[in-house]
Amino acid sequence: MAVEFDGGVVIGADSRTTTGAYVANRVTDKLTPIHHSIFCCRSGSAADTQAIADAVTYQLGFHGIELNEPPLVQTAANLFREMCYRYREELMAGIIVAGWDRRRGGQVYTVPVGGMLTRQPVCVGGSGSSYIYGFVDSSYRAGMSKDDCLQFTAQALSLAMERDGSSGGVVRLAVISENGVERHVITGK
Amino acid sequence: MLEESPSQLEGLSDEVKTGTTIIAIAFQGGVVLGSDSRVSAGEAVVNRVMNKLSPLHDKIYCALSGSAADAQTMAEIVNYQLDVHSIEVGEDPLVRSAATLVKNISYKYKEELSAHLIVAGWDRRGGGQVYVTLDGLLSKQPFAIGGSGSSYIYGFVDAEYRKGMSRRECQEFVVNALTLAMGRDGSSGGVAYVVTIDQDGAEEKCILGNKLPIFFDE
Predict the structure, then answer these.
(1) B152, A159: Cβ pair inside 8 Å?
(2) ipTM score over 0.85, yes or no
(3) In chain B, fewer beta carbons within 10 Å around the N or the C end?
(4) What pLDDT, in 10s, does the model give residues B132-146?
């Protein structure tokens, strides 16, 4: 999940990867850096999303060198969309792209399965997301501070992890702003 | 040869389901039940004002979800069985009895039926009670949610429910939960029906779409 606030974004994810009922990795990091101040939250097939993220990281890095300045979050989101839409029949990937750039500040874009692209102040995704739509709709208010967003994200993820068998482990959070990236982990304790 | 267009055929063969959101919560002295009002057959809305809160007895109601036909039939059968039972016993039936009757049908015809009823009411012995009868089990809970729309509000109810809520708070909780679910689930919608049952009887209310609370809509 990802939330925009004035000055940046807060992103969060659980840490469980499953093959059927077996938890293959209980400490996965689903928050993947694409560029210095741009991250993506991966959901769906781990293989597909890793491959897409690697490809986009390369493309964006190249683009940033050509441009000679940090690329825009919207560019990163579009690169994801291009790939997810073109290969939509073969892929199973739901990706949330979030980051900070100088032009538009904190932005969150969602590229769900199928390959659409849309910008939203709050995005949730993955199997556990169904259970927290009601909570997010009722608790989100525009203009929350960074700490409010952290609290909101952590609470939403905990609720989803509680109800969804395919979600669990620890809550990984990251705050992306002008000052860079700040990562947190909330364990069972 | 007469040829019907494919779209007409599709509509006829879709089963009528109450793709639904239902919720029931117990408070000190009674229960509050809530449901949406949409009945769908595939993508068409067949009835947009159906009341899915069905009385089983004066102070015992059930909330219907799943296949419309199955749920209605189960409710009618249990209504009859409860009437007979209450005459034999000579007093108002217990909520647990009603729930057990529903559970017996659910369990026996598990393979054939696809409906889930939440049974809730008030009786003298136990006060307000809510029973879940999903798949033929019987479980008493402080509150219960069901239907297709319920998936979207698990997080909300987990976060917002507190023990010892008052009657008014429970009613608000139910209306908020229904509104959020109707907002996200395509198979739930219409108006919200709320029934409050306590020792004085059952009070039915219908809240129209434009009177429902508004939440942040991205």
Answers:
(1) no
(2) no
(3) N
(4) 999 899 999 999 999
